[in-house]
Design goal:
The complex is a heterodimer of chains A (143) and B (431).
Chain A lengths: L1 E10 L4 H11 L4 E8 L3 E8 L2 H10 L3 E13 L4 H11 L4 E11 L2 E8 L2 H10 L3 E2 L2 H6 L1
Antiparallel strand pairs in A: 1-3, 1-4, 2-3, 4-6, 4-7, 5-6
Chain B lengths: L5 H4 L3 H22 L1 H9 L40 E7 L7 E6 H17 L7 E4 L8 H12 L2 E3 L6 H11 L3 E4 L1 H13 L4 H4 L4 E4 L6 H11 L2 E8 L4 E7 L6 E3 L4 E6 L13 E7 L10 E7 L1 E2 L11 E2 L4 E2 L4 E3 L2 E3 L1 H9 L4 E11 L2 E8 L8 H19 L4 E5 L14 E3 L4
Parallel strand pairs in B: 3-4, 3-5, 5-6, 6-7, 18-21, 19-20
Antiparallel strand pairs in B: 1-2, 7-8, 8-9, 9-14, 10-11, 11-12, 12-15, 13-14, 16-17, 18-19
Classes of the chains: A alpha+beta (143), B alpha/beta (431).
Chain lengths: 143, 431
């Protein structure tokens, strides 16, 4: 139930984000979800894309520093409190969240959220126990 | 073979001092008689050659600075007729004219002989193959090493610097066992070798490298040694004093032996000119004791080091100096504090996640910015780690220099790669 995410180190300078995204666009890589964590001088661009390995190769060829990490994509009810409910389970189980961001596309009536915690295996089994829907890689591609 | 010239290299200290004194007297007399500028300087200091009765009396003599090399330029300090000179080398002057140093046949031969001592001291011998990746040209670095290696009977590949692909091809095709190279270029070549998937321990025959011509830290040495699986020996010299081989490490790699039968060394306080105590850091001052064409008396090297007075396990009686800790010219001042680039380099090399290249940018007198590339291999995608790493760099530089720097983390490959002397400090301050 883990899915692959690209983390790209970006200096905070003009055009760097554009260069990364246009390099992927030229090779027909589609972006399903995106987030940027930044400080005043540098940031990390996080991407869920259709072909992560190929995307990594393309970016490295363009001299970006890239790492593939595992994350979880979970579907939560698209209504007030939908995400909070899922997070409460993690809170109660004392699992810290490293970062979280949302997919643009919905999965049926549900919103899809990307989640990275300090312990992915424990998070997966906990959320499955609580009947929270986790997306497989095929689910992600079908979005 | 452990020694090139066992008798001179292990000469008992007292005899060595005696030899130094005899050669010093000869040198002083020579410049007093043949160099009007030296005679005038001595007279101004109210000292005659006959006043030098002990080795210690050398501190009665005036210093020679690089400005003296421009007096009566270019032949002013030469003690031989021009037709007896066979070589000119220059040292890049940052202020217009280069420093011109002339050699007689005997001087060239002697500088090669000194290098032969250095090479044999590190275990190099006939059958070794030396790839000389220093610049052949006005700079002495490559030539002196070249002649010294030939003297030992080593096969020399005069590769010169740059063209990294070709450097690696030469190493592979001809089985290079010894490299003579600058530290910053060595780091670069090593990283290209590894990037190409070449296993230097299996695919190359490299055993050792001599690194000199720019200051570098112990951490840099260890890093390159680990990357290539070789022994690296520190090499010190300056064009004004023959070039490389003035000081060289033996196999114990614990400081550089200065060939005291050829050079009289002093370490002084650069501000006052007074000698510091043995073991204290100061500016290295050298007097040539065995040079014919252009002897130099108490030459201010601008290099900072300290004397290691303890005898060395290798049995050589010639005293050692520590690695060069910086040049007084490299020193820059921020917030009234004297800082050397090597202090910053040492900190960076001790931090995991930082790559080899860095730059210090000075825009004002109370702030320095350190730009450093992150290490591609150690990037784990976590911003917290990068923030923590940046804080660690700031903290450690602050405790090493007393100045809190601004630190910028850069993408790998952003800073210019040096194929010669690395330009680490960019001083944009105008006043």
């Amino acid at each position: 139930m883990k899915i692959k995410q690209l983390s790209i180190f970006l200096e905070n300078k003009r055009g760097r984000l554009y260069e990364a995204l246009s390099a992927l666009a030229k090779e027909g890589i589609n972006i399903r979800a995106l987030s940027i964590a930044d400080t005043s001088e540098f940031g990390i661009l996080r991407l869920i894309v259709t072909e992560p390995e190929k995307a990594k190769e393309i970016l490295e060829k363009n001299e970006f520093t890239v790492k593939i990490a595992n994350v979880i994509a979970m579907a939560v009810a698209d209504k007030p409190g939908g995400l909070a409910e899922a997070l409460k389970y993690l809170y109660d189980a004392n699992i810290n969240i490293e970062y979280i961001y949302a997919f643009v596309e919905k999965s049926g009536e549900k919103a899809v959220v990307v989640l990275r915690t300090e312990n992915l295996d424990k998070t997966i089994s906990l959320l499955q126990q609580k009947d929270i829907k986790l997306l497989s890689w095929d689910d992600v591609l079908a979005l | 073979m452990e020694f090139w010239n066992q008798e001179l290299e292990t000469l008992e200290s007292q005899k060595l001092r005696q030899l130094q004194f005899e050669r010093l007297k000869k040198t002083i007399l020579r410049v007093y008689q043949k160099v009007p500028h030296y005679r005038a300087k001595f007279q101004e200091a109210k000292v005659k050659p006959s006043d030098i009765k002990h080795l210690e009396d050398i501190n009665k003599l005036p210093f020679t600075t690089k400005e003296d090399l421009y007096v009566d330029y270019p032949f002013g300090l030469v003690t031989l007729p021009v037709e007896k000179l066979i070589r000119l080398h220059t040292s890049s002057g940052t202020t217009g004219k280069p420093k011109a140093i002339f050699f007689s046949k005997k001087d060239i031969n002697n500088s090669a002989d000194i290098i032969a001592r250095c090479l044999v001291m590190t275990g190099a011998q006939r059958g070794d193959i030396l790839q000389n990746s220093m610049t052949y040209g006005l700079f002495t670095g490559a030539f002196v090493m070249h002649y010294g290696a030939e003297k030992v009977g080593i096969l020399v590949i005069p590769a010169g610097p740059g063209n990294t692909e070709r450097q690696i091809t030469l190493m592979k095709d001809f089985g290079t066992t010894v490299l003579h190279i600058t530290p910053s270029y060595a780091l670069y070549v090593a990283s290209v070798i590894l990037d190409k998937g070449i296993d230097p321990r299996k695919d190359l025959k490299l055993k050792r490298a001599y690194l000199g011509a720019e200051p570098y830290s112990e951490e840099t040495r260890k890093k390159i040694e680990n990357m290539l699986g070789i022994e690296i020996y520190n090499c010190y010299g300056l064009t004004e004093m023959n070039g490389p081989g003035v000081g060289f490490e033996c196999k114990y790699k614990a400081g550089l032996h200065i060939w005291e039968d050829n050079f009289l060394m002093e370490v002084i306080n650069p501000e006052s000119g007074e000698p510091v105590k043995d073991g204290e850091i100061g500016e290295l001052v050298l007097t040539t004791l065995n040079r014919e064409a252009m002897p130099l008396i108490r030459y201010r090297t601008r290099d900072l080091t300290r004397i290691i007075p303890e005898p060395c396990k290798c049995g050589r009686t010639h005293r050692r100096i520590s690695r060069i800790l910086g040049r007084s010219d490299d020193m820059f001042i921020v917030k009234g504090v004297n800082i050397f680039p090597q202090q910053i380099e040492q900190v960076l090399m001790s931090i995991k996640g930082v790559a080899q290249n860095y730059q210090i940018i000075l825009e004002s007198y109370d702030e320095m910015t350190v730009k450093v590339e992150i290490d591609k291999e150690l990037f784990d995608g976590k911003i917290e780690r990068l923030i923590k790493m940046k804080e660690e760099i700031i903290d450690k530089i602050r405790s090493a220099t007393m100045v809190k720097p601004k630190v910028e983390l850069l993408e790998p490959g952003t800073l210019p790669i040096s194929e010669g002397k690395a330009k680490r400090v960019i001083d944009n301050r105008t006043i």
